[in-house]
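Handoff note, outgoing to incoming analyst
You'll be picking up this chain. Sequence as last confirmed:
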Amino acid sequence: LTGPILLTGLAIAFLSSALPYSLEMIALKGLSRSTFSILMSLEPVFAALSGYLFLKEDLTLLQLFAIALVITASLGSSLTAIKKTQAV
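Most recent structure output, in case you need it:
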């Protein structure tokens, strides 16, 4: 391990996990739960899009279908939770 490689690894670790997590926690304070959960369900889409644009990764039809299922499940969960809280 050399200094530049270690610093690069630390920068990547911070920018890929600590910073996004901190920003999500800040956003959670200012958004409703349903809005936040819907935005979180879109993360697989943005991850797939980033992989396609920056890494030239192609997704298979099965992977695209899996992403669609994750988003659908999250949206369905959020929308039914909204209806339950409004009914109470």
